[in-house]
Design brief:
With 402 residues, the protein is an all-alpha fold. It has one domain. Helix content is 63%, strand content 0%. It is globular and about 60 Å long. It holds the Pfam family FA_desaturase.
Amino acid sequence: MTESGQPKIKDLKEDQVRKPAWLDILPYFLPTLLIIVNMICSYQFNFFSIGIYFSFVVIPLIDSYMMPENHKNLKEKELIGFEKDDRFLLPLYSHLILEYIFLYTNLYYISQGVIGNSFSQFFGILSAQFSAGIVSGVIGHELIHKKPLRDKIFGTLFYSRFFYGHYFIQHVSSHHKMIATVHDASSGRLGEGFWPFFRRALTQGIEVVWDFEKNRLAKEKKSPYTFENRLFSFITGQTIYYLMILIIFGKKAFLFHVALASLSMFALEVVNYVEHYGLERKQDKNGNYESIQNKHSWNTPEYLTGIINFKLQRHSDHHSNVYKPYQILSSFEESPMMPCGNLLATTIAAFHPSDWSKLMDPLAKAYNANEKVSEEQKKIVEGLVLKHNIINAVLMTYLCFF
C-alpha cells in the first residue's frame, strides 16, 4: 500500500493505459435518469411513488433473480486510466444538482399550496424526495473522500441538510480508523439491534467529534468553546439554514424539510449498520487491533444496485483504500458477502430485527472465525431473503398503487 492508501500499481507507458470511453461512464448516469423520471411523474402525473418503488422493489428483484453477480474488476491498464478521469464526477454532480432543484421546487410548491395539501400527497412528495436523497447520500459520501476541497465542501453541505455536517469529521477521522471495533460509532455490533444502534450512533458520533475538536484545539492551546470548534460552526450554520427555510418557505415547507431530515438520518445510519454489522477486528495480547483489511466490511455483488450506489457495495475495498474513487473499486474473494442487497438489508434490519439476527448473526460469526457457513444455514438464508423480497414487493406495491 502507498502512503495515500492506494494499492501500488506498476508503471505503465502511456500507450499501455486504457482511458475510459463515454460508454464506461454513461451507466453511472442511471441515478440522474431516475431522478428525472421521478420529477416528471411527480409534477406531471401526481404519481410520487415511482422512486421508492424502483429503489425497494424493481431494482432489488432484478438484481436478485435476473442479473448475474458482478465481481468483475478493472485490469491494471484500466485502473490507471479510469482513476484520474474527471468525467466520472459528472454523474455525481448531475444527480446532486437535480436533487437540490427537486427539493427547493418542492419547498416552493408546498409554500404556495400547489402540492402537499392532503396528508397522502404530503407523504407522497416526501417519499419522492427521500428516494432521490438516498442516492445523494451516497454521492455525499463519495465527495467527502475526494482530495479537492471543492468536493469535500459539497459533500459536507449535503449532510448539513439534516444536521450531520459533523459527519465529515466523524467518518473520516474516526470511523475509518475504528471500523469493526467497539470504539466505532458507525459499526453495528454483533447482537445489537438497529434501533439501539441508532440511538448510540447519534450520540456517540457527536461525542467523537467533540473529543476530536477538543484535542485538536488543545494542541494549539485554545479553548474548545469557540467557533474554531467546527462542531459549533456546523450547529450554528445548520440552525441558520433551517431558520431561513422557515422564513422563506413557511411552516408547512419547514415541517416537510424536518421530516426529510429525520428520514435522512435514519437512512444514513441504517446503511452504516448493515455495512459493518457484527464484523470484528482481532486484537493482539497488547490490545492492538489488526490492520484494516478487505474482510472488515460487508459487500454485495449486485449489478444495478452497484451502478446506482456508485459501487459503494464494494465497501471492503473502500475501507482498505480510502482515496480510491468509486469507478475503480474492486471485489475480492476474501470480502464478506451479504446474502442480499443493501436496500433489502436495510428494511429487514430496521423493521424485522428477529429475521435480521437469523440472517446475519451466523454469517458474521463464521466470517469472524474464518469458518465456512453450513449448507443448512445457506438454505435458511435463501429462504429469509426470498420471504422478504416477497413481503417488500407486495407491501410496496400496495402502498404505491393502491
